Amino acid sequence: MSLFSFFRKKSLCVLMYHHVGPADGINDERFYIAPEIFSNQLDLLVKKGFTPVSLWEVEQAFEQKKKLPEKSVLITLDDGWLDNYLYAFPILKDKKIPATIFINPGLMGFNKDLLSWEQVGEMNESGWIQFASHGHNHKRLRDLSDEDALFELTESKKALEGFYKRPAVSFCYPYGASDRRVRKLVLQAGYTMDYGTRKGINSWPWKGYKPLLRAHVMAGETLDDFYKELSRGRK
Predict the structure, then answer these.
(1) Whole-angstrom Cα distance, residue 85 to residue 8?
(2) CA-CA distance, 161 to 113, in Å (whole number)?
(3) How far apart are CA 145 and CA 139, in angstroms?
(4) What is the per-residue pLDDT for 125?
(5) What is residue 25's predicted lDDT score, i.e. its pLDDT?
(6) How far apart are CA 117 and CA 71, in angstroms?
(7) Which of 52, 94, 120, 183 sits between 20 and 30 A of 144, alpha carbons compared?
(8) Contacts of range 196-199, beta carbons closer than 8 Å, 24 or more positions apart
(9) Exposed, middle or buried: residue 80 (CB in 10 Å: 0-12, 13-18, 19+)?
(10) Are 15 and 214 in contact (CB under 8 A)?
(11) Would you state the torsion angle of the CA atoms of residues 24, 26, 28, 31, taken in this order, to the nearest 10 degrees?
(12) Torsion angle, alpha carbons of 106, 108, 113, 115, to 10
């Protein structure tokens, strides 16, 4: 067995998406994955023997210091865009693959391009989509005072816990903006797992010394590129 194969089996790949849907008239198309491409990527993931896991499986494994399945993959989508419901959700549900959406509760209901709580509820009821914190209003926490940053962290946590009736312990940094001060505040607010935007694969068990790494899935990539991201967190 090669060192690369051993590492991959003892790891967690976290895929980072934003939009799944058409990018017609959009200035920055890099973040828009066409639905058929998204579907093909999920098929390849399964074909190559990777195991999609849910957010709660990851949280439980971390909390209880348990192993994850070999070649585990957590699919995440940032910001809670409406196209996640219109395009990604039907594909994930049809293929019975779990995913996590990091949302900003303070913005929901004020932007027609974002998910509504009704849509969040429908996706949650399906059993295939889970939700976690991306801050309350998607603010760059490094630019905020401790007090304002804690407001962003705790208000989002309260909203999610009110919705789920269970602890919300996972957090994703808006814009990937994290430093030692901000990470200390994230942990102080009661989160135990945090997700950044640095590229790479996470060894498991995760020690929690730094935010979890993620593999960035962008438009225009080939399936070979995608496989490299699954295997090593980058092309």
Answers:
(1) 31
(2) 24
(3) 12
(4) 95
(5) 65
(6) 33
(7) 120
(8) 196/172, 197/16, 197/173, 199/233, 199/234
(9) buried
(10) yes
(11) -60
(12) 130
Place of tokens 């967690």: 12
Phi, psi (rounded to 5 degrees) for 106: -70, -20
Residue burial 50-59, b: 16+ Cβ < 10 Å; e: rest:
bebbbbbbbb
Q: Which residue has the tokens 């209901």?
A: 109
CA atoms of 43 and 5, how far apart (whole Å):
21
> Rounded to whole angstroms, how far apart are CA atoms 19 and 229?
18
Termini Cα distance of the chain: 22
Going by their DSSP bridges, the two strands 11-17 and 202-203 should be labelled as antiparallel
